């Protein structure tokens, strides 16, 4: 199990785990804990399973959920990757109890991953961050921002954060990690960068900050990475040298970051939101178009 979404629900920390079966297909299962660290209680059966008969885009599994509480609708939205015959794409479901789910179906065509919603509307529209992959590798894979009036129909697409080029830690391919976190200074993003080396890829994490009222405006973006695979369980596994958060939970100014380690297990890191914001200000690049 790896790459869990995370939220607070009925006094518990709730994780929606990606569980890969022996066929190689993934489903999602809920785990709950009072303190978010110990005493995990697992649903006895898979919570959210692929339904390829009704939703053919899920033929090879459902993966990497990001959970956002929609304040206006008083329910949770789950952006997840549906592994279709045409490639991975972004699908969306909602729930009020994490037992029954309303699927909205695919909302972005393949290849697309790493999607999450903001918890509020901006001038009447919902906003989604996601990461389409172009057919041309030369173009790079960037974080995009798209808009919708109803969570189903999406448009007004544009690149929000560009993957840098050259020797940067986040060159050529980046993607959102957990959903955006609202802070007094802006929307805090934790995102991953993929550095290709002679021995393969390294997934590291960096930070960016968006304007609270207008998330198209990038206030800060870190030049440096803040977190990388160091421990053996992060460096060796089904996919080596990967730290991949899909969920974080904030309480009392601190976050618990739940992340997939080497696509083989789930690990936990903690951080102070204030310290992250301060670090970001001191390592931030001046925004510029191509981030070269």
> CATH superfamily name?
Glycosyl hydrolase domain, family 43
- Extended strand count: 21
* Biggest β-sheet description: 6 strands, antiparallel
Straight-line distance between termini: 36 Å
The name of the CATH topology is: Tachylectin-2, Chain A
Low-pLDDT parts are 288-292
- What is the tally of helical segments? 2
Assess the beta-strand content as a share of residues.
Answer: over 45%
- Give the CATH class: Mainly Beta
- Helix percent band: under 10%
Order of helices and strands: EEEEEEEEEEEEEEEEEHEEEHE
Compute the gyration radius: what is it?
18 Å
- Any idea what the CATH architecture is? 5 Propeller
The total domain count is 1
The coarse silhouette is globular
What's the mean pLDDT score?
95
What structural class results from the helix and strand content? mainly beta
